[in-house]
Design brief:
The chain is α/β, with parallel strands linked by helices. It has helices at 6-19, 24-42, 57-71, 89-101, 139-150, 199-202, 214-219, 229-235, 261-272, 288-294, 331-343, 352-360, 378-385, 391-405, 440-453, 458-480, 487-492, 494-502; strands at 49-53, 76-81, 106-109, 123-127, 154-158, 182-186, 204-208, 224-226, 250-254, 278-283, 299-302, 320-323, 348-350, 373-374, 408-411, 417-419, 425-427. The strands form two sheets. A ten-stranded mixed β-sheet has the order 8-17-16-15-14-13-12-9-10-11. A seven-stranded parallel β-sheet has the order 3-2-1-4-5-6-7. Helix 15 crosses helix 16 (458-480). The chain is elongated and about 85 Å long.
Length: 506
């Protein structure tokens, strides 16, 4: 699924109007009807509705909704802020339609405004500004936004919470952005909705399909995408009828240290649950017994040191290699990591302490083999590329890193970002807050390493891995609740995740 900019949304509107064809006022009517129907079906008929409409297209939607909700028997009051007398033509048409239908519903504000007293049971429809906003709200509109935020009513924002930019909010004034309970996003998600710092503004996002042109959407260029399950299904390969462990790949995991055997175990179990033919784990001597007990399917490659990884073994015999979970950052381990980077010719999965070591030795970035997959969480990424004040900036830094390394960078979190060497960014839609638990990242490393070993292209493994990982987490949360979810539960639900995806029609 494409993610397009606010400017491209306006292009898509124009394309739909020209090629459907449909008059702009009729497209607004269609959009408003879909959003009014949402209000009618989701909120009790006894609740009072207050619409705050701006002078643009978003305000036109709000006024049309006010008319439709009034016609449906709802108690509606609408305020149109027309302080400059420059009003969008379609907004003006809906102003007149509302006056013709229910003149007592509409109050037009041209000068001073006293904010109405709102009750907790009220529904506020925020239709002040939409995708066209390019600077923070100020003056009277900022005061209205702040007043909405101080009330205890349910706030429903139309398309975009007023004051929020569709992409970059680095220099926005957060105090003047409406904090929605629900955002009715027209047709597609906006990029800003995928960043954690904006969740307090968008609330729950509900997509509203208004029939914008599919052909027009296809023609818009973007580097931003949301991964869809059908795409993952298309990437998954059937196992050959005559497959055996030698043909399904031999993976190497370099993981664990004294007291951190769990990281190696979780990554190893996840790899074995993700279809790899054989798995070897290079780990310190102190972890041997527990690994062979908990993951009997894995081959253990013993490091000579009891506590840390200190030497690199020959990795040329393996089809894929993952390194980092639980290895710590000792100088001997750092030397071993550097040796692996220098000897490895194929792509690697690089996670956790391996990333932290590289962040302390940035010259080693050039030693990372092309098409490798780096899996940092935000703090690990910041150590590699510098601190980011916003996730929008973090996305751009991760994207630039992927391009410069000719590798894949997966920034873990809700809507994990998969940045590709070609400059595309895929947001992963699966996963839940219950996965914010120790060991979850180790599981992802195991999954991706197993996929690479089986012959999946790095571009495929980087997309499939986070999707399967998140879906298994969602299934585990459904069965166990988010609070009770552990990394082992994600592994235990991998079979169900694979089964669910493979059950989709090809």
């Amino acid at each position: 699924m494409k993610i397009i900019t606010g400017g491209q949304f306006r292009e898509l509107d124009r394309y739909t109007i020209e090629h459907e064809p449909i008059a702009s006022i009729d497209l607004m009517e269609r959009a408003s009807r879909a959003m009014a129907d949402y209000i009618l079906s989701h909120f009790d008929a006894q609740r009072r509705i207050i619409v705050f409409a701006g002078p643009g297209g978003n305000g036109g939607d709000g006024l049309a909704m006010a008319r439709m909700l009034h016609e449906a028997g709802r108690d509606v009051t609408a305020y149109l802020f027309n302080v400059t007398a420059h009003i969008n033509p379609d907004c003006d048409t809906n102003r007149q339609r509302l006056l013709d239908t229910a003149p007592d519903v509409l109050t037009e504000i041209k000068a001073e405004f006293t904010f109405p007293e709102l009750r907790p049971t009220d529904i506020v429809i925020d239709a002040l500004f939409g995708t066209g906003l390019s600077k923070p709200l100020d003056g009277g509109f900022a005061l209205v936004a702040r007043s909405i935020n101080r009330c205890s009513a349910t706030v429903v924002s139309i398309d975009v919470p007023s004051g929020l930019m569709c992409e970059d909010n680095t220099y926005n004034d957060s105090s003047t952005i409406v904090r929605a309970t629900v955002t009715l996003s027209i047709q597609l998600l906006k990029l800003a909705y995928l960043f954690p710092e904006n969740q307090r503004f968008v609330g729950t996002v509900q997509l509203i399909d208004i029939g914008l042109s599919h052909e027009g959407l296809q023609q818009l260029k973007t580097y931003l995408w949301i991964t869809e399950q059908a795409e993952v299904r298309a990437m998954l390969r059937p196992r050959p009828l005559f497959a055996h462990k030698g043909t399904m790949g031999h993976a190497l995991l370099v993981a664990g240290s004294r007291g951190m055997a769990g990281a190696a175990i979780l990554a190893a179990r996840a790899a074995m649950r993700s279809g790899v033919g054989k798995l070897s784990v290079h780990t310190p001597l102190s972890n041997i017994d527990i690994l062979q007990t908990t993951v009997p399917e894995a081959i253990v490659q013993m490091d000579v040191d009891s506590d840390h990884i200190t030497a690199a073994i020959d990795a040329s015999v393996y089809q894929a290699m993952g390194i980092g979970p639980g290895i710590t950052q000792s100088r001997h381990t750092a030397a071993a990591l550097h040796a692996y980077l220098q000897q490895q010719v194929g792509p690697m999965v690089i996670d956790a302490d391996a990333l932290n070591i590289i962040s302390q030795n940035k010259a080693w970035l050039t030693d990372i083999p092309a098409d490798s997959i780096l899996t940092p969480h935000p703090a690990e990424l910041d150590r590699l590329v510098g601190h980011s004040a916003t996730h929008y900036d973090r996305m751009n830094r991760a994207r630039n890193l992927a391009i410069s390394l000719r590798s894949f960078v997966i920034v873990k979190g809700h809507y994990s970002m998969v940045c590709t060497p070609a400059g595309d960014v895929f947001f992963n839609p699966t996963g839940n807050p219950g996965m914010a638990t120790a060991g979850s990242g180790d599981v992802l490393t195991g999954i991706i390493t197993a996929l690479l070993a089986q012959g999946y292209l790095p571009a495929e493994a980087a997309i499939i891995g986070p999707y399967i990982h998140g879906l298994a987490g969602d299934l585990a949360a459904t069965a166990l609740t988010e609070e009770c979810l552990t990394a082992s539960d994600i592994i235990n639900h991998l079979p169900e995740a694979f089964k669910q995806i493979k059950a989709l029609p090809s």
